[in-house]
């Protein structure tokens, strides 16, 4: 009887842990999607890190985005 109660308790804890992991995975997925949307607004350019910036060609509003360049190992917005 005590063994069955112990198994039941462990099973309940396992189910609770599994639900927490599922919620954490959903949160991580949402954060990943948000990050992908934010990153999509940048264009990576290696020109900025060498100091050889050239003006970008003119674009329409729908094509405009920010260019990101590396500065001290970090990506920064560069327009």
What features would you highlight for this structure?
rod-shaped, alpha+beta, 53% helix, 18% strand, 79 residues, three-stranded mixed beta sheet
Outline of this structure?
This protein has 79 residues and is α+β, with helices and mostly antiparallel strands. Helices cover 53% and strands 18% of the residues.
Q: Helical percent range?
A: 40-55%
User: What is the radius of gyration computed over CA atoms, rounded to a whole number of angstroms?
Assistant: 24 Å
Strand content: 15-25%
What is the tally of beta strands? 3
- What is the ordering of alpha helices and beta strands? HEHEE
Mean of residue pLDDT values: 79
CA distance, first residue to last residue: 71 Å
Major β-sheet strand ordering: 1-2-3
Profile the largest sheet.
Answer: 3 strands, mixed
> How would you sum up the global shape?
rod-shaped
Task: Please explain how this structure is put together.
With 79 residues, the protein is α+β, with helices and mostly antiparallel strands. It has 2 helices and 3 strands. The protein has helices spanning 2-39, 47-50; strands at residues 42-44, 66-71, 74-78. The chain has a 3-stranded mixed beta sheet with strand order 1-2-3. α2 (47-50) links the parallel β1 (42-44) and β2 (66-71). It is rod-shaped and about 70 Å long. The N and C termini lie far apart (71 Å). The model has no long low-confidence stretch (mean pLDDT 79).
